[in-house]
Amino acid sequence: MLDLLRNRLPGRKPTRPxxxxxxxxxxxxxxxxxxxxxxxxVAQRALLSAGASALPIMGVDIAIDIHLLSHLIEDINAxxxxxxxxxxxxxxxxxxxxxxxxxxxxxxLVGRMVTRELMLKILTRSGVKVVSKNAxxxxxxxxxxVSAAIGFSAFRAIGNRHIEACVKVAEEMLKMQxxxx
Length: 181
Known about the structure:
mainly alpha; 8 helices; single chain
């Protein structure tokens, strides 16, 4: 039942069987197409986050942000072929290159399983967002609109930063792949 609800999120594709795992984009054009799709996904989910931020109930927005962001990160990783399962299916040289590029970038989300604890850590890093959203919520209507705007921009920034990290890893993978061939 929960999978059926998750699959109905905007921009979320139905859960794929592991046999149909997508590998890294094969060309620069494919990479840019994936980037565009992921940016649309981020914008749609950021709107949902903004809607949750506008709710006058404290704490609900953080729970919704964690849920939306964790699924967004998983979906972006899958689109770029950067889930742990997808990386494991790569050739040994490409697998090593992928992990070394990920470590070199210092990314905590590319190629990793996304947990609630990790999402909470990411969201608490943007602690200004939480404090300012809660403070502005005390002012009726205008405060809720400001809170929604802060929620939208923070969510979008986290999502777009992750997309760019995935793009860098995928570009390095394309270079490695062309060097091997």
